[in-house]
Amino acid sequence: MPTLHRTLPALRRLRLANAFFQQPARLRLRPAAQPLRSLHSSPQVRQEEKKASPTTSASSADHAPQDAPDRPQSKIKYTSDSYPDLKRDSRFKTVSKEDVEHFKKILGSEAAILDGVTNETGEEDFEQYNSDWMRKYRGQCRLVLKPETTEQVSGVLKYCNEQSLAVVPQGGNSGLVGGSVPVFDEIVINLSRLNKVRSFDDVSGVLVADAGVILQQADEYVGKQNHIFPLDLGAKGTCQIGANVATNAGGLRLLRYGSMHGNVLGLECVLPDGTIMDDLSKLRKNNTGYDLKQLFIGGEGTIGIITAISILCPQRSSAVNVAYFGLESYEKVMEAFKEAKKQLGEILSAFELMDRQSQSLYHQASGAKLPLEGEHPFYCLIETSGSNTEHDSEKLNAFLEHVMSEEIVSDGVVAESETQLQSLWACREGISEAGQHWGGVYKYDLSIPLPELYSLVEDARKMFESNGLMHTEDETFPVKDVVGYGHMGDSNLHLNVATRRYDKEVERALEPWVYEWVAKRQGSISAEHGLGLAKKAFIGYSRSETMIRLMGKIKETFDPKGIMNPYKYI
Amino acid sequence: MPTLHRTLPALRRLRLANAFFQQPARLRLRPAAQPLRSLHSSPQVRQEEKKASPTTSASSADHAPQDAPDRPQSKIKYTSDSYPDLKRDSRFKTVSKEDVEHFKKILGSEAAILDGVTNETGEEDFEQYNSDWMRKYRGQCRLVLKPETTEQVSGVLKYCNEQSLAVVPQGGNSGLVGGSVPVFDEIVINLSRLNKVRSFDDVSGVLVADAGVILQQADEYVGKQNHIFPLDLGAKGTCQIGANVATNAGGLRLLRYGSMHGNVLGLECVLPDGTIMDDLSKLRKNNTGYDLKQLFIGGEGTIGIITAISILCPQRSSAVNVAYFGLESYEKVMEAFKEAKKQLGEILSAFELMDRQSQSLYHQASGAKLPLEGEHPFYCLIETSGSNTEHDSEKLNAFLEHVMSEEIVSDGVVAESETQLQSLWACREGISEAGQHWGGVYKYDLSIPLPELYSLVEDARKMFESNGLMHTEDETFPVKDVVGYGHMGDSNLHLNVATRRYDKEVERALEPWVYEWVAKRQGSISAEHGLGLAKKAFIGYSRSETMIRLMGKIKETFDPKGIMNPYKYI
């Protein structure tokens, strides 16, 4: 291989840019008191922090769902009030004192039950189980059960099924679509005490662990043995691996390691009638019948409770590099992505897209210096992860040289320290919160085929301009700007509409316009968040009637009495 | 990174070994007239070649299933004779002349129907549809339909369902468990004419193509645009991508790119009642309800017919390296695998295991010179694929230096040319046929957790020694040797029992002993071949009663009349 010509104009420009990039942007935009990950360190802490600053909490996640801009609230509205059409299903029994006695027998310890049925436990004690961290949903549950073993889950479900008691399986309760909180008086079955690692084989990389193990702990556990958990996401300090599987969580590592459908090797589930379905295989290959576990992956707790998972963990990469580019058009972004795949191939671990508007908002809101001089219509962040620092840098440099000399990218910088690396990521990760700066954000998390991915943003702008709702400077217009960014490598766009105030007219302009736009391109109205309660009504935009009908049959087959996570999903 | 010390003793040994390895082993052991891939070039050719040398054809596939050793046969036995307990299901109607007329109306062209109902089409014309290439199964179908569009498949199935006519979906008919041939008079729906590529996006790497596209053609198609199909297997010249998905084919690229459950993004299927289920998504992320397509992946045509697939194709690697080692114990093999994952990380694309017995058989049968001097209890073949030749060689050399200086491997060679690369692969790929040299082979394709993977081979030897059935030299013993090899990286063992003659006693000693052994370790009795007819009776060794019961419900939900590929699977 020829030596790199480091004096080429392109790389000279790159060096200049790197020299310019001496002052790293302020590390993360989020308020110091509320960094995203520590926010999620435990449900208790989370709730307290949230109370302290309710106006921004809803937007501190990159993947916050579409919603009205947040307003200070003293109390979260009951879901049954927000959704007046939802009525409690009369087939379900109300929990009695006898039921509680029975559960006490099954679970043994007093610590395993939060009981507002037989005693005066206050509503505030239930808040962390009854409401979500976005403060968007609130149920009326008066009984939380925390089984410690699969057998206890089985005993509980068997009884609930016999007695027609509705239940909501709950992990770290960090979901974004209201899937993990009750709507009415469903019993919460919280998996947090089912939290042991069962085994890890550092030759095959197969981890077997209880559903309630926290994602971050699972990652640290395998990390000590040079592996990584094949999923990473903002809520890793709170969310649980069983629930990650139940919601088919996407996150940051999907581009490289693929989805749960490929990585999960086995599951142990408890069916609604208490039957334990032991499919906790450690095998990569097992062609013996329908792969039933796949229905539980992304099944959102509607056909059973996942009690343990077996998952393939890849080797941990020792070398990580990050570069940040400016580009002149979306076509150039596509070209850059194609070249990155080609030249970086096996070491490419992230390809993130940010438009000019998103970087401008980020700059204005945070005051952080942007990495590149001048403005570009588009920006990309590329991350590589590999086993050899020198090789990876060389590949990255060759790639940079190519894309700059071919004028695919206009300008670029490469992080030369961990601080710079974090600053570059902040330009991407800070967008979500930046939009909140002027009021609130309508957020959509969508999958769109790559060639048309960005057109939605352009069309949304046109739509708002034509109906006179948007102006970047004039404060009398409700919409300040429309920004687009996301996981380009996964065809996953985050469409954010930054507004100055809550406005019904904006909402009416957006919905169902966005869903219809996405449906026309065979996109997905929920790329990685799932359906829960929030998207239940919109599934028809992403799935055919035939499929919805078949899904109904699957639900009926597994959960004939409908006790599992009712009112949601399909 | 420090420069490699090429004078280190380990690498000196390596160089010496490379010098020794001047005479490449004869390329591939298979008879020149019958190389595996050309054997599969078209069904017609295949059949003719097979007739010319029926005694070896059954063993030329690496993944041939367990079976009695092949004997020359003039005629393949009817499945209904081999399985006398199987009776034709009287619910199914016999095809009438009126039915054929109706199908003619749906399919239009005469070329789309092979009709032995209304005319005198001879049995030999049906042979390629009625029997499998292993010459193990033979059905009695008298009507083959070859739809050219999804709508035609829909029309055909709708009619069959209404009329209770049983069907067998058929791709390239290269399966190993009798899943793609009829048992009685089921109608064959052959997908070979549904064979268009619908689209390929070279930015996302997403290929959308009809089910009947030949695997090799799909790979070549995306290869022209620098991508690879994420599946490769011996029968690639014949097998069809829809059937690959329907059987969840594993093959050679699984270690690197994972299974169909992760790579297939969408499917278009026709349900038994003719409904077209359009789930042909091109998205990597789509969390909107149960992932129904997963049931069709590995569903073996029992709940519907896959008519098109959407699949993620990775970037093609430009650099490929192959190394071959000798090791002193299975523990060392595990260590080498661990080190390979660690040091070769993202470029590791194959880690294959061969025991001494397998290499000895290969040497004796082929006369090929083995790559290493002296004997070792175990051998491994490692392949790397990456985007940069120099980097990959450097990584591989560093790895070799490490494993040799740490005495994890005892000796090794690295291919320095394409010819040597092929010769090294021949040592692995030639085993299957070598075993056949003395008579025949009982073959098992199993998944076993890695730590115990090789114990099965040792236990099988002990078993045969204790019951006096095995001797490597003495011709009076039926079993010559037991060899173990396979896809170590996928925990996939091929257990081959090389015999001198067909012997009922050997068979009785092996079954159900092997299945019980595997079941005790939560292994899989069918790693990648599926159930078909061959393994239907044994599913209980790999799946619980609960799961089999649930699978039955899935089948009933999708195919209430049971017309899809009857008598097989679960």
TrEMBL record, chains A, B:
Under Gene Ontology molecular function, one entry of this record is: D-lactate dehydrogenase (cytochrome) activity
Q: Which reaction does it catalyse?
A: (R)-lactate + 2 Fe(III)-[cytochrome c] = 2 Fe(II)-[cytochrome c] + pyruvate + 2 H(+)
Where does the FAD-binding PCMH-type domain lie?
Answer: 137-316
Sorted UniProt keywords: FAD, Flavoprotein, Oxidoreductase
The cofactors required by this protein are:
FAD
From the UniProt annotation, give the residues forming the signal peptide: none
The record ties this protein, via SUPFAM superfamilies, to: FAD-binding/transporter-associated domain-like (SSF56176), FAD-linked oxidases, C-terminal domain (SSF55103)
Q: Spell out the PROSITE patterns in the cross-references.
A: FAD_PCMH
Q: What is its EC number?
A: 1.1.2.4
Q: Which family does it belong to?
A: Belongs to the FAD-binding oxidoreductase/transferase type 4 family.
What is the name attached to this protein's record? Answer: D-lactate dehydrogenase (cytochrome)
